[in-house]
Amino acid sequence: MIRTGEEYRDSIRDGRRVWINGERVTDVTRHPMFKPIVDIRARIYDMQHEPDFAPIMAYRDEAGVPFAVRHEAALYAGGLARQTPRYRCGAG
Asked: How crowded is residue 37: how many other Cβ atoms within 10 Å of its Cβ?
């Protein structure tokens, strides 16, 4: 099973002890220093469920069970980097 973005967020709301600049972070999904990267990772999970991106972001094994591909591989080998600019990573 491939989890959703919300399932990813829930998985890191697990009581872990995180500190940044002497401040205890109680929820890394909402803290301004972590929220942007959490949102990006959650978006990658959600894209694996969307019809436009699922063929690039996931595959099914012989039994039909879906698995995620590493997002770096999907970006370049699957052609996602050539999609609309809003899904590009890095400079350029």
From this structure: 10
Tokens in use for 92? 């350029």
The residue that leads in pLDDT, 92 or 36, is 36
Cα(52)–Cα(58) distance, integer angstroms: 11
| Residues near 67 by beta carbon (within 8 Å), at least 6 away in sequence | 2, 58, 59, 60, 61
Q: What are phi and psi of 35, to 5 degrees?
A: -55, -45
What is the DSSP-derived secondary structure letter of residue 14? S
> How do residues 12-56 score in pLDDT, each as one tens digit?
999 999 999 999 999 999 999 999 999 999 998 999 899 998 888
Per-position DSSP letters for 58-91, written without gaps between them: EEE-TT--EEEPPHHHHHHHSSGGGS-GGG--S-
Q: What pLDDT score does 89 carry?
A: 47
